[in-house]
Model the fold of this input.
Amino acid sequence: MTGSSIAVRGLRKSYGKTEVLKGVDLDVQRGEVFALLGSNGSGKTTTIKVLVTLLRPDGGTARVGGFDVLESPDKVRQCISLTGQFTAVDEILTGRENLRMIARLRHLDDARGVAEGLLDRFGLAEAADRRAGTYSGGMKRRLDLAMSLAGTPAVVFLDEPTAGLDPEGRLEVWKMVKELAVGGTTVFLTTQYLDEAEALADRIAILHGGRIIADAALAELKKRFPPARVEYVEKQPTLEEIYLHLTRNAAGTKGTTR
Done:
């Protein structure tokens, strides 16, 4: 990772008399998975909207991909993609048609080839000719992510990408995020799930009271707490592990077991 992909200084934003961002400072390095955590209403989505040029800040500066979000919004948009809290696929079109459409909107030379490559990459080739409205939640999210990557953007913004997904769908998205990071894409992630940030992020920032109150790698954040007390206990499986084990085994078992 070399150089900043996102640089934010003194970012401020208010809605009427409510000051949401009160001087946010952030740096995200190229090829990094960066997680922004905060409670509902803390300003996570507002921060993303400013960075993707959908919202004008009241003060401060923000640069994405080397471009100022106010002075060069078109250049910022050319180097980013955004996947929001809700999937933005056309449910009337098939998966293949959705991808070809977005490739054409991005003015890519080989829209057909781009679509086929993304269908293979995201495991959607078998469902490519089905209407997106028939897809499961996890498949729709995969299609949404695939559409975001048409044109290989340098920075991908994921605003609570696993909200509302079942455990298997969440794991599918996690896999995709890890693959993006391996490929050198910068990922800016917001999430309500602390285990998600722990599993995916190279660095974590906490937004609280309109300001960043912590910004470090997970290992560094852990050092800020008293040493853990060592206890020897039997590790019990989590509900998520039990759910995935039972559902995966059931797929290969006929009949009902009591």
